[in-house]
Structures are given as structure tokens and as C-alpha cells.
Design a protein that fits this description.
The complex is a heterodimer of chains A (about 140) and B (about 325). Chain A is an alpha/beta fold and about 140 residues long. Chain A contains six helices and five strands; from the N terminus they run αβαββαβααβα. Chain A has a single domain, classed as Rossmann fold (3-Layer(aba) Sandwich). A five-stranded parallel beta sheet of chain A has the order 2-1-3-4-5. Classes of the chains: A alpha/beta (about 140), B mainly alpha (about 325). At the A-B interface, helix 1 of A face helix 3 of B.
Chain lengths: ~140, ~325
């Protein structure tokens, strides 16, 4: 493993994209930053600007209006970038998958590197997904 | 061995006490700041090499995106300028502070101007990026610079008065050889005012109005990515060493780089960073109006009181 992959793995900055979410996954993502779970010990931090991001956290069902926004956000991220779909809506569409305005699951729109299912996933599940993402050999 | 004189200056600027030393030591200070923040919030905090991972990732891995609507040349030139300003001021502070050279008469004024260059570079880069949030950040940064500069200048004036009208850093250090300036009431007032100025200069929490993550999404730095952001990060690391070192020289009797002196010097700088970190962790972000009022009225008042006390010999 080269220096580039090692430093990238050790310092992932997260950007949070919430689609048409019910806000449950948003709250569980914020839980990961709290004292009990603390993702900063893996070198992660939440950034406000998409230009600083290394990981795109996408949650919520993606409807037709969100689709263009998601594509635009994805184009604005400096590459390389990892995409994580969080929650049942992000992974498959969940109960909205047959809805009229539903435009996706996330992996139909942009390439996804990790899926974290659950409605909402527990912070432990999100942490487990993040560890798998870190250990995944990105080629 | 005969070394050409130009090589020596280049070594000072690039290796010790310049870019390489200042960036690594400042990076460790940045880790210390994040770790203390984590402990204050009952978290575990990042590993010790985290600042270097961040810097190397931005430098080596990420691509740099330049804005289409904006001045590309100025946008990419601003981070280089900020890195240069931070390094040059750090070298000019650390050379007299560590006793390598005695500097030149009037270097305190040059340092005062050089310490402004990073803030000016951030303003230029933000204005060149063509992003509305960045220009909000830039306008706030300008207002912040206007407010803290007068206080900082008054602090320097007080130090000059205290050390018997000398404008050379080496002579200010030697004036403190018996007892440091911090040891009396005017010194403590000056310490309070200069800690607040450092807080504003570094863009830390009570005065991080220009780069507020939650309201203007990192403000001035919103459009920066990849190598350009890496340079800004390195400039911030260097400033996190340069400003506490400057405060050590002005008030706490300089640094000493021989024998046990190294431990004391590191403790002095780390102590000031600890103070800054605790201030930043126990205060909310103020509005720009409040920040200007704070510096224009209260901090200036404190420094003027200190000036009067110095004049009376206290």
C-alpha cells in the first residue's frame, strides 16, 4: 500500500447530502460525531463545503428534484471520492421505491462504494460500515 | 568549511527554523489543539499524526478544482502568498527568539506587517473565487482585520514602551532577561489583549466569523480544494506556531534552544496554545458587530490602561 492510499484512508472528510429524508438517518449520522461514538478518532470530520469532502454520505429517498442536485454535488467533489448510501431509502428506496416521484436508489445515479442498510441504521452500524469502507482496497 | 551566505539564509527559510520545522511543529500544535478539544468534550480525539495525514492527503491525493467564474491566477496565487507570509514571519520571529541571529533594528514592525499577509491572501483568494459565500467570508475577514489590528499595534507599542523604546526583538528579549514582562499588572493586561488578538488572527471560535462552518460553509475557503487547500492548511499550522512564539518573545522572555531550555520553550508555546484552545472551547461564536465592539472598545481600553500603568512604572 502506497503513501497516497494510506494518507487518504487515514483522513476521510465527510460531506452529508440529505435527500428527501425523514431526518432519522441525519440524526443517526450526527450521533456518530458525539462523545459516545466519536468518528474523529479515525481522522474523520464533517466539513461544510463539498470542495473539501472525501466521502459523500447520501441518505433519504432520492426523488426527481433531488436527482439533479445529487448529480451536481457529485460533479463538484474533487476526485477521488467515496460514496456511502445510508439507510433503507438510500440503499434500495425502502417504502418509497414504487412511489411516483422516486428517481432512484442512489446507485442508479452515482457509483456507490458502501451500503449501510437500516431504517434508521444504528450509529454502531454506521461505524461498522465506515470501518469496512476504510479497510476496503480502493483500486 | 566555507558556506556561501545565500545558502545559509535559504536553509533558515526552508529547513530550520523555517518551513519544514515550523510546519511540523505547528502541525503537532494543531494536533494538541484538536486533542484538547476532544478531551473537553469527553471524546477520544484524533491520532497524533492526523494533521500530517490531512496535509499529505490534500497535497498528493485530491484534485484541485479552479472556478470557471473567477480569476484563476489570483485564486491559485493567494494560497502561495499566505504560505510565504506565514513562513517569512515565523522565520523572522524564531531567528531572534532561538538566538541564532540578533535580527535587525525594526524587525518587530516588519513582523507586524508580515503577520497580516495570510489574512490579506485569504481575502484576495476568496474574492477571486467568485462564490457569494466566499465574498461574505472575505468581507467579514476585512472587518475583523480592521478591528484587531489597532489592538495588536497598541500591544506592540506598549511592549516597546516597556522595554525602553527599542524596536528590535533581540533587545526586547534581553530587556526581559531578569524578569519577564508578564510579571506585573500591565503585563497581565497585555497578555489578555494579545491572546484575544491571536484568537482573531488564527480564526478560532469566538472570532471564527469569517469561516463559520455552519452559516457560510467555511467562508473564505469554500472553493479551495486539493493542493491549494493543502497550502492554506500548512499556512495555518505555521501561524499556530508563529503567533504563540511571538507572544513568548514579547511577554514571557523568549525561547531558549539549548539543554533544558528546549523543554521550557516547548512548554511555553504549548501553554499558550492550551490557553487559546480553552478559550475557543468555552465560548460561542460572536457576531461581526459584537467582535468589532469587543476590540474597538474593551480590548483597546485594556491596552490603553496598560500603557498608562507602564508610563507610571507599574
Amino acid at each position: 500500500m502506497g503513501l497516497k492510499e494510506y494518507t487518504f484512508k487515514k483522513s476521510l472528510w465527510l460531506f452529508h447530502f440529505g435527500g428527501a429524508s425523514c431526518n432519522n438517518c441525519d440524526i443517526e449520522i450526527l450521533d456518530c460525531l458525539t462523545p459516545r461514538y466519536d468518528v474523529e478518532r479515525f481522522g474523520m470530520k464533517l466539513v461544510g463545503s463539498v470542495r473539501h469532502a472525501d466521502v459523500l454520505l447520501v441518505n433519504g429517498s432520492i426523488n426527481r428534484k433531488d436527482k439533479t442536485r445529487l448529480l451536481e454535488i457529485y460533479k463538484q467533489v474533487p476526485k477521488p471520492v467515496l460514496v456511502v448510501a445510508i439507510g433503507a431509502c438510500g440503499c434500495t428506496g425502502g417504502i418509497f421505491s414504487e412511489g411516483n416521484t422516486f428517481a432512484g436508489p442512489v446507485d442508479k445515479i452515482i457509483p456507490v462504494d458502501a451500503y449501510i442498510p437500516g431504517c434508521p441504521p444504528k450509529p454502531e452500524a454506521i461505524l461498522a460500515g465506515i470501518i469496512k469502507l476504510i479497510n476496503k482496497n480502493k483500486s | 568549511m566555507l558556506i556561501p551566505s545565500g545558502m545559509k539564509e535559504l536553509f533558515y527559510f526552508l529547513i530550520y527554523p523555517g518551513f519544514l520545522f515550523a510546519a511540523s511543529f505547528g502541525g503537532l500544535q494543531s494536533w494538541f489543539d484538536r486533542k484538547i478539544t476532544a478531551w473537553v468534550q469527553f471524546r477520544k480525539g484524533p491520532p497524533i499524526l492526523q494533521p500530517f495525514f490531512d496535509f499529505l492527503k490534500l497535497l498528493l491525493v485530491k484534485e484541485t478544482i479552479v472556478p470557471t467564474k473567477g480569476s484563476v491566477l489570483l485564486f491559485l496565487f493567494a494560497p502561495i502568498m499566505s504560505l510565504f507570509g506565514a513562513t517569512a514571519s515565523c522565520v523572522l520571529i524564531l531567528l531572534p527568539a532561538t538566538g541564532i541571529s540578533s535580527g535587525f533594528s525594526g524587525d518587530i514592525i516588519v513582523i507586524f506587517y508580515l503577520l497580516n499577509i495570510p489574512a490579506l491572501a485569504y481575502i484576495l483568494g476568496a474574492m477571486a473565487s467568485g462564490n457569494p459565500l466566499a465574498s461574505v467570508g472575505a468581507s467579514r475577514e476585512i472587518k475583523l482585520v480592521i478591528s484587531y489590528e489597532l489592538t495588536f499595534l497598541l500591544v506592540l507599542a506598549a511592549i516597546i514602551l516597556k522595554s525602553g523604546m527599542t524596536i528590535s526583538l533581540a533587545e526586547i528579549i534581553s530587556a526581559q532577561s531578569e524578569h519577564a514582562f508578564i510579571g506585573n499588572i500591565s503585563g497581565i493586561l497585555l497578555l489578555i489583549a494579545s491572546i484575544m488578538c491571536i484568537q482573531a488572527k488564527l480564526g478560532l471560535v469566538p472570532f471564527d466569523i469569517a469561516e463559520a462552518e455552519t452559516e457560510v460553509n467555511h467562508g473564505s475557503f469554500i472553493e479551495y480544494s486539493g493542493t491549494a487547500l493543502a497550502m492554506i492548511v500548512a499556512a495555518k499550522y505555521i501561524m499556530l506556531l508563529a503567533l504563540p512564539a511571538f507572544l513568548c518573545v514579547l511577554l514571557i522572555g523568549g525561547l531558549n534552544m539549548s539543554g533544558m531550555g528546549i523543554v521550557y520553550s516547548v512548554l511555553k508555546i504549548t501553554g499558550i496554545v492550551l490557553l487559546i484552545t480553552l478559550v475557543r472551547n468555552t465560548n460561542p461564536r460572536v457576531k461581526i458587530k459584537q467582535a468589532m465592539k469587543f476590540f474597538f472598545i474593551w480590548m483597546n481600553l485594556i491596552v490603553v490602561i496598560a500603557l498608562v500603568l507602564i508610563y507610571l512604572g507599574l
